[in-house]
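Researcher: Can you fold this with pyridoxal-5'-phosphate in place?
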Amino acid sequence: MRSVPYVNLATQWAEERHVLAPAVEAALASGQWVGGPLVEQFEQAAETYCGVAHIIGVASGTDALILSLRALDIGPGDEVITPPNSFVASTAAIIFAGATPVFADVLPDQNMDPAAIERAITPRTKAIMPVHLTGRIAAMDAIMEIAGRHGLAVIEDAAQAMGARLNGRSAGAIGTVGCFSAHPLKNLNAMGDAGFVGTNDDALAARLRRLRNNGLMDRNTVVEWGVVSRLDNVQAAVLLHRLTGLDDVVAKRRHNAARYTERLNPAFVFVPPTEPGQFNAFHTFVVQVDRRDELQAYLTAKGIGTAIHYPIPIHLQPAAHSLGHGAGSFPVTEAQASRILSLPINQFLTDADIDTVADAINGFYA
Ligand SMILES: Cc1ncc(COP(=O)(O)O)c(C=O)c1O
């Protein structure tokens, strides 16, 4: 039986070793392990790639969100509207900033419903934090219009969306700030934790650069309290190289997604359609199906790796108990949580792998 792994980072290393081993060696030999030219080179290359004025490297996608909230002076007493179906970091960042997360339910494509955002706005709302889940950019035109009308900041959680575009604009370059993760499982991945923030706002960028570095304005002057959340040189060397191959990674994932869409039986498998103007990066390929758990067990037995992003909505997590949302609060998110399944989409899969997965799924329902 042909097994199909969900992720394949060992192959990525094997393919890139001849370039990355010397690049990492050079980064170490420079003796400058935190900050310095490699980090700046990566930031500049990412600015060009995303078409944004500033990219600020930080230690993780979670820190990118926390520092962005802080740089926007969002804290106690403020509300931030975000979806309940994201990775927990989106909501956790709002809580860590001292603010209150207010959830808005999602659309069939798993991204935030602008009408639900509008209904969630109160006099305390300071920002909207849409999440570009799966590498598909949320309805940013509507979200930016709502934000403009109500004077709200927009913090894009673009952790899953590096390489995605909407009407030609990059994820993370549309809102007030865009927060990216370069976690090993992301399309643009480091070899440890890493992240970055994008913004076109000069003052915000300067503040983010200080906040990630203990609030230091120069070597000896602290103008506000900050944290240590710097991108290190080894990760910058890795990211600098991988950024040059990102378009190929995204193209391969888009090819895999198109092949699945062509082959999966639409009578049993819902694949959210791509809207005009959307260029999806397919960090994940999430389908929605009946009998999801049975299907997952069936695929596992056949050696096909899958994942669920995410089985427990954030508002139903034990940590969210004090927010006071019971089951039934966000019906679309909750219905999807029991139906979503992430199929293998990584760039190392062959057409035969995709066909193996699609045939197995169609066979399960036949
Ligand atoms: C939607 C979303 N937000 C935030 C994060 C946090 O990123 P990191 O793991 O780099 O802290 C992730 C990554 O897992 C994510 O998927």
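Model: Folded with pyridoxal-5'-phosphate in place. The chain is about 40% helix and 15% strand.
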